[in-house]
């Protein structure tokens, strides 16, 4: 499966673009998690959770922030 470039909306990574894998239907995977950046190098960083939302008018897939997990 090809990789797909997606835009993140909401949360700490708002506006960033990342590359995700496609599922068997050719759409981006439904959910991704990214490691948050923390100022304290000894802290355990949370995982930022984004879920596939929709395709915008330009054809770019968007993922919406749904929360964080530790």
Automatic annotation (TrEMBL):
Region of interest called Disordered, as start-end residue ranges on this chain: 1-33
Top-level taxon of the source organism: Bacteria
Protein name, entry field: Uncharacterized protein
